[in-house]
Amino acid sequence: MLKKMFDRTTTNYFFIIIFAFLLFMGGFGTNIIFWNSVGSLFGIILLIYLVLKQGPLKIPPHFYLFITFLALFVLSLIWSIDFTESFKFLLLFVGGCTFWLAFYNLKHKIENKFELMILFLGIAFGGLAFAGILFQWPQMEGLSLIFNPSLAHTHHHIGDFWAVVTVVAVYKLFKSPRNYLLWLFIPVALFLFAISLSRAAYLSLFAGVLFLAYKEGILKNIGKYKFISIIFAVSLLSLFFLVATQKSILFSRPYFIQTFLGLIKNPFGIGVGNFVYTSYANKDFISGLNSFSFYAHNIFLEVISGMGILGLSFIFWFIKVFTKVMNSSNSRIIFTAIFLVLTVNFMFDITYFNPTMMWLWFISLGLAQNKVNFPKI
Predict the structure, then answer these.
(1) Tens digits of per-residue pLDDT, 203-215?
(2) CB of 206 closer than 8 Å to CB of 236
(3) What radius of gyration do the chain's Cα atoms show?
(4) pTM score of the predicted model
(5) Which of the chain's termini has less CB crowding within 10 Å, N or C?
(6) Which range, of 25-34, 202-211, 214-223, 364-373, averages the lowest pLDDT?
(7) For residue 63, what is the enclosing H or E element?
(8) What's the CA gap between 116 and 110, in Å, rounded?
(9) Contact between 121 and 23 (Cβ < 8 Å)
């Protein structure tokens, strides 16, 4: 009886709608601890649903290594300077972990559904960004994926999310170049990238498109796509250097040095999410680099500053999964590309604190590792 109820198509649509709603709300970057909690709860419910519907779960490669990292993360809560901030980030990883396991176990192809969901989210966030520009909406959270008028002199994370959207659109254009509706995403993307002023968005987009071009064999026939390639490269490089003239590339990122100095003083860290204490304490170490930040702008620095040498477990896990999924001939290209885009973005920005971006990172990993060699249900 219970199994028949879970076999209904309406149940599947219910989970899709709830999941899309979570990704949308998480993108606002508000009430982070609440949405992290809801995401973790939904991930657990999704796992229970999959067990009832499909049977025992398959474990993705290096999953237990990540569980070890989570266990060490929990241990680091004991000496965290700000327990709430660290617990907030822990929930983000727990939710991501459940999504990783769940999407690795999906027994049917969902490429089109997931790609369409990202495109629709891009339209939603892009539309809100245009509305924010036109109506000058009041200040929003700095982690929001929408255009924020209060951040006119820094950058906006709409470009970071649209790096993912654009890679999906480009991938679909590789498959269906005559889909003229998809071509409309390109000028919109260029506009949103221009107003975002995010160098991390440009770098992550470049990495994703280059990866797709390599995997699709376009790099071998670059002459055939010479005109489009030149336009893409010139546009992206122009945006990057235009922003670089307004913001220092070197002096705006003293966080590597600050993390290193903090690690010497606190070899076991000060709690993930508390980078501001390390940054402020070491802001005057070198003349000209006397700035501090609430975030490390690099997910690996964030973990190391928070967990110290225990954070090496996270880096070790990442190296394992990243090298395997990037080198695997069986991984699904579009999801590997999304995982790469978000990885590059997380190395240069604070978007790893945004629930939607972090969830997508783990989901894309699970789908990239999923060989889809199960019978369709």
Answers:
(1) 899 899 889 888 8
(2) yes
(3) 21
(4) 0.87
(5) N
(6) 214-223
(7) helix 63-76
(8) 10
(9) yes
